[in-house]
Amino acid sequence: MLRFALRRILQIIPTVIVVALLIFVIFSVVPGSFAASLFSDGRTNADPQLIARITAQFGLDKPLHERFFTYIWDLARFDLGTSFRTRLPVIQMINERMWASLELATAAMVFAIVIGVPLGFLAALRPGSVLDTVTMIGAVSGLSLPQFWLGLLMMLLFALHLNWLPSFGYGDGSFRNLILPAMALGVTPLALLARTTRAGVLDVMNSDFIRTAHAKGMSETAVVRRHVARNALVLIITTVGLQFGSLIGQAVVIEKLFAWPGIGSLLVDSVAIRDIPVVQGTILVIVLWFLVINTLVDLLYAAIDPRIKQE
């Protein structure tokens, strides 16, 4: 198990290096610059000499390869650079926003698990029933509808018409402020979990060992509890891990829509003003979060199913 864990952890390093290279190249060749964005409002004349001086001040006039090696050296020292706009360390800015994003992603995932897994399980136990049909229609709808559109509908209904919940903002960090953005973000993983759970449970229930358990006289409850649930768990855990790992990235739109102070809204704001160190650092943290979560999921279902360690 230790060798399996080390192998999975070491696989993160080359992936992070490749992602860092792609991020650096992409944001080095895209049109526009931070210096030019300072004069994009039209209220100040864009003096070419001033733009050149600002560009040199932030080291953007250096050759591409020199900037890249400096960037990689800083990453090796866990230094994500300094924001062009605020002159604060990027890692400090991300730390200030990370908790809000983790809070939102965790609440959305809990919402998805609590509703999606039981619905998918019950639908699989009664295939073709009204519950099964309604669950699958709801799952397809949840996967098809855009999150920002659902978020707007929720704001219109629960905040404006019913006045039950605040429409946007973090406020004092209370649970009421978290409900609407978490529900809007959690609809897609909820729908996917319902479909995946149903498919996984149906696949297990059609297996030979389940028919053998029934032939031995085991009750339906005992079969489901001892055999179906455990064997379907690997697929469910994989889906939960993939969705939870990607929720930080998916939350960009929801955070802007609900004015949630997470790293997704920080990313959008930084792209708008061409604050490249913050953009690069934020994307790298989102990717690293996804890799770490998926590594933990690999270790978890390797513990559940020891055959995975042999692959």
Automatic annotation (TrEMBL):
InterPro entries: BPD_transp_1_N, MetI-like, MetI-like_sf. Gene3D superfamilies: MetI-like. It is a multi-pass membrane protein. Residues 98-301 form the ABC transmembrane type-1 domain. It is found in: Cell membrane. The chain crosses the membrane at residues 12-34, 104-125, 137-162, 174-194, 232-258, 278-304. SUPFAM superfamilies: MetI-like. Keywords: Cell membrane, Membrane, Transmembrane, Transmembrane helix, Transport. Pfam families: BPD_transp_1 (PF00528), BPD_transp_1_N (PF19300). It comes from the Bacteria. Belongs to the binding-protein-dependent transport system permease family. Part of the ABC transporter complex GsiABCD involved in glutathione import. Probably responsible for the translocation of the substrate across the membrane. This is Glutathione transport system permease protein GsiC. The lineage of its organism: Bacteria, Pseudomonadati, Pseudomonadota, Alphaproteobacteria, Hyphomicrobiales.
